[in-house]
Design goal:
It contains 5 helices and 3 strands, in the order H-E-H-H-E-E-H-H. The chain is mainly alpha-helical. It has one domain. The longest helix is centred in the first third of the chain and has 25 residues. This is Membrane protein. Keywords: Membrane, Transmembrane, Transmembrane helix.
Length: 158
């Protein structure tokens, strides 16, 4: 993954954080479209990342384990952020949500942890081509878990 793709990933994170700090309805297809886009982009980037690494040597158990751990960590941060989202019923009966300062802090910590995991993954490959390719997949997983849990909380209001 090149620096341009990483910058695009960081812009996406900034837009996600900004959007989560605004009051919005919980329902709608917008998050599903974004999740689909990030998931597809993440899978493509990951497949190309793996293909780039295996040109030099096979993937080791440590690389596979760290990549899986990175995605598990993404799910954990998504669950943690979902708990920090304020969810309430609006005046017209629709469920609304808005993130807090803690939500933002967890996004930033999550991103820092992911960057650290990227470097660790790349260290295990010896070629430095796989770690950054997991960014979009990481974002898709963390956002999907957060969205699912916020939707569950909103459904409990009805």
């Amino acid at each position: 993954m090149n620096n341009g793709a990483i910058v695009i990933g960081l812009v996406i994170v900034a837009l996600l954080i900004r959007g989560q700090l605004r009051t919005r309805p919980v329902h709608g297809n917008g998050p599903l479209l974004l999740l689909g886009f990030l998931g597809l982009l993440g899978l493509l980037a990951f497949v190309f990342g793996v293909a780039s690494v295996v040109k030099y040597h096979p993937l080791g158990a440590a690389t596979i384990a760290l990549t899986a751990a990175s995605l598990a960590i993404a799910a954990g941060f998504g669950a943690a952020r979902a708990r920090t989202m304020r969810v309430w019923q609006g005046p017209e009966g629709q469920a609304l949500r808005r993130g807090t300062a803690v939500t933002t802090a967890l996004w930033l910590v999550s991103l820092a942890v992911h960057i650290g995991m990227d470097r660790w993954i790349d260290h295990t490959t010896g070629v430095g081509l796989l770690g950054a390719s997991t960014l979009y997949l990481y974002l898709a997983v963390t956002l999907a878990v957060q969205s699912l849990l916020v939707r569950r909380r909103a459904a409990a209001l009805a």
